[in-house]
Write a structure and sequence with these properties.
With 118 residues, this protein is mainly beta. 9% of the residues lie in helices and 47% in strands. The chain has one helix and nine strands; from the N terminus they run αβββββββββ. The strands form three sheets. Strands 1-2-5-6-9 form a five-stranded antiparallel beta sheet.
Length: 118
């Protein structure tokens, strides 16, 4: 038998939407640069099972990616890519309340990666 908390989690999950944009060339073809981004949208959801209690606000943080194909510089490096990801690019501050606790949303985060596809 599912608990009430599981039911709230399922309802909150239905309100979440994600829109992603695939990387596109940012400069003339052959330069190796591209860009991409996406919006994660979490809709309004109840903070707990108590009727008339707090509701979480709708948030839509923006994520971005900027990969660079290293094979354009050194042909020997075919399959290698340098990539920078930015989560919550605009630094939106938000809070999420759930089951009587309050959590801060993820802050802006930068991640650099060196990827080798073989």
């Amino acid at each position: 038998m599912a608990s009430q908390r599981d039911g709230a989690r399922r309802r909150a999950h239905r309100n979440r939407r994600a829109r992603y944009f695939h990387p596109r060339p940012a400069a003339p073809l052959g330069s190796g640069t591209s860009r991409g981004g996406g919006i994660r949208c979490a809709g309004t959801s109840p903070a707990n099972e108590v009727p008339g209690s707090f509701r979480n606000a709708t948030v839509a943080p923006f994520d971005a990616v900027a990969p660079y194909d290293l094979a354009k510089v050194v042909p020997r490096l075919t399959g290698m890519r340098l990539q920078v990801n930015v989560n919550n690019a605009f630094g939106r501050r938000y809070f999420n309340r759930q089951a009587g606790a309050c959590y801060r949303g993820r802050p802006r985060q930068f991640i650099a990666s060196l990827i080798d596809r073989w």
